[in-house]
Amino acid sequence: MVDKNEQEIQLLEEELMIKAITEDNMEELRNQLLELHPYDQAKFFSKLSKVERTQIYHYFSPEEMALIFENIEIDETEYEEFLSEMHPSFVATMLSSMYADDAVDLLNELDKEQVASYLTIMEDGAAREIKDLLHYEEYTAGSIMTTEYIAIKEYQTVRSAMQILKAEAPRAESIYYVYVIDEDKRLAGVISLRDLIVTEDDTFISEIMYDRVMSVSVSEDQEEVARKMKDYNFLALPVVDFQNHLLGIITVDDIIDVMAEEASDDYSKLAGVSDMDGIDKGPLAAAKKRLPWLVILLFLGMLTASIIGRFEATLDQVAILAVFIPLIAGMAGNTGTQALAVAVRGIATGDVDKESRAKLILREAGTGVITGTSCGFLVIMVVYVWKGDIYLGILVGISILITLIVATLAGALVPLLMHKLNIDPAVASGPFITTINDLISILIYFGLATAFMHYLVQ
């Protein structure tokens, strides 16, 4: 968390840079902005107006702007707006100067015609590299990997490997691991930078490389890649094709972005929002993202209301039953959401696999029985003391018992079923599972009330 003094310093720096832009003082602006960390440069740039950004394009080179766009965090719709403010050749040079994976991430936010236009006027080598990465399916290892890595041959010496490292390091995204390939460019091993530094110059690479190297397939899901990198504490992972040819690497900074993206995506779905929106979005944009789920939930709610209507005769005879509808439905929704959160988290972290699904279901069933029995017994006593009707208390208590068991199982089973069908389990969102459990709980409650009506009507 940024302390108050640091915030004041940042605000003062921003004010001075804005003043430099206003006064058209290029030298002062460059001195101040280039002293900042690239992330802070990008943060400042994203706050500027269109007129102020236009000044920046005149003051900074495409290579300097590349560093800003590698670190910028803006809405996907703003990329097109920002790039349209620059001359196409300026954009093309900037993209060529960016790491290939970052350039691909940016281009994925544009329409195909714009991408083709920029690639046409880019330098051939950079354009070819970016085109190769654009072909990979989104959210796979291929879509987030970079081709700026260092590879050496196993028959080389440490001396020659260090010469290659020094020559290629400026363009490589990560040099902490140096990958070893054979004559057919297949991944043969890996060496850490530390091992290269401390080993004698005349030692052959094959003698010191680690040949049991962990890699990921180019088509592997980015979430699985993130899990592997977290489990093994790697700074980078090599990406290979089905014949084990080295295609690129995925660095830890890319994985941090993936984890943030996946967490935001899962949270959005759990909240019943198609895509989490920032506070800077207008009400119309926010409503467009939320309406689809709300419309679905509206019709499910109407179905629940129609079910209550079918038990109108039961309510006419025992009107007091209506008092406990919110209690039954609320308890079902709450316990279902709890079970849902546990199941989705277990699937996301890899804790829940084929072997442990039955264990999870049995645990949640047991949890439902224990919580249902406890809450049901408590409700029986409260209703009896409150209304003086033991039969009504037993009805509500048994309804809660059965409802909590069913709702807990539904909260666990629905995401497991979706995961088995290769559907994102987070789609079983909190609002969705809550509405479904409302429907189930009402059926259970009024079904029992109708069946044992003669005990309630005296």
Automatic annotation (TrEMBL):
SUPFAM superfamilies: CBS-domain pair, MgtE membrane domain-like, MgtE N-terminal domain-like
Entry GO CC: plasma membrane
InterPro entries noted in UniProt: CBS_dom, CBS_dom_sf, Mg_transptr_MgtE_intracell_dom, MgtE_N_sf, MgtE_transporter, SLC41_membr_dom, SLC41_membr_dom_sf
Residue ranges of the TM segments: 291-311, 317-344, 365-386, 392-418, 439-457
Domain CBS intervals: 145-207, 209-267
A GO molecular function held by the record: metal ion binding
Protein name per Swiss-Prot or TrEMBL: Magnesium transporter MgtE
Species, as recorded: Litchfieldia salsa
